[in-house]
Amino acid sequence: MSFLSKSTVLLLLVLCCTSFTSTEAYDALDPNGNITIKWDVVNWTPDGYVAVVTIYNYQQYRHIEAPGWLLGWTWANNEVIWSIFGGQTTEQGNCSRFKGNIPRCCKKSPTVVDLSPRTPHNQKIANCCKGGLISSMVQDPANAASSFQLSVGSAGNTNKTVRIPKNITLNTPGPGYTCDPAKIVRPSKFLSADKRRITQALMTWNITCTYSHFLTHKAPTCCVSLSSFNKAIAPCPASSCGRRKNNTVSRGCVDPKSPHVPGPGHKNIITPLVQCTSHMCPIKIQWHLKLNYKHYWRVTIRITNLNYHMNYTQWNLIVQHPNFDNLTQVFGSKYEALTSLSTTNDTAMLWGIKHYNDVLMQAGRYGKVHLELLFRKDKATFTSKKGWAFPQRIYFNGDSCVLPPPDAYPLVA
């Protein structure tokens, strides 16, 4: 019997760690999804250039929700921002070396945020000012990008002297996205409003950012309970999203009957403040087998927001179930099949209807939305027995939800 040397064992450990790091951001349901930041130099100025920066969301279902994106970088030299439209730098920095005309931002590592839709027209550019919200590509492709324009000074003013920013970061508003170094690409082309003339950028570089759930959440953010018409129920597993300390009300957990439950004015606070439950999840999803007809069966899905600090704008669900090939009708939501890796339709994207239920209100009386699915029965490919009427996986806003263990599934006859 031979033994591995210490150096071989060390090499294997390094390879294992490397393999995990390179795949942790991989999303099997959206393998090509990413956020691409395009930096287009459109004009030269006496001491620099004017650029339009656009954030494109090429992810099918993961979007950027309130309070919105923050984009940061580090200048290669001593560049400054003279002016900005469609966005805002969060700090001015030290501009003491300038006399008279003061730049908008002199920080070595600036951060830019989006403006609100109520911004005056003379401070806007095309595709800006959405409050930092960027939709996913499937849910609302017309709003899957956000732009701002900035005038950069103390920089080169030719494509041979301009230096590309480094250390690009995209927060939404917490961590989650890792951005690759900027790469110079073929200059972008722009079509005029009358579609009769094409212009192009003087210089363009791209930054690709990929999402990793491990960077965003240390614990799950949603759970699933299962029920059927015969009242059998598999609840959310205990401590799905965290534990209650000593089974009492504690920080980050509020008894819904408490007179100190926060009101709507706290909705923009990022830190979750949830109802005290056995599972401690901000979002609870119930899959209920409602009716079993001779040729059809009907499911009700209820999404409950237990977070007192958050309204979920443009929420969406990803559901994996083997019978989506026989989905007949959807009530209360929009639907799109996701078939990126398979020719069979077993994955569905569901999201709210605009001005009806596309905003999931914070915990309380209105913190719920309902939708229903009607399936046709196909005895050759599907049976409702032994738990097959229930989903294999559910994602809320791109995050995987904790389901009950298979042996807890209700046995539907």
UniProtKB/TrEMBL annotation:
State a single Pfam family of this protein: COBRA
Q: How does it sit in the membrane?
A: Lipid-anchor; GPI-anchor
Which part of the chain is the COBRA C-terminal domain? 221-410
Q: What are the annotated GO cellular component locations?
A: plasma membrane; side of membrane
Q: Where in the cell is it found?
A: Cell membrane
Any signal peptide, and if so, which residues? 1-25
Some GO term, biological process aspect, for this entry: which one?
cellulose microfibril organization
Going by the UniProt record, its keywords in alphabetical order are: Glycoprotein, GPI-anchor, Lipoprotein, Membrane, Signal
Q: What is this protein called?
A: COBRA-like protein
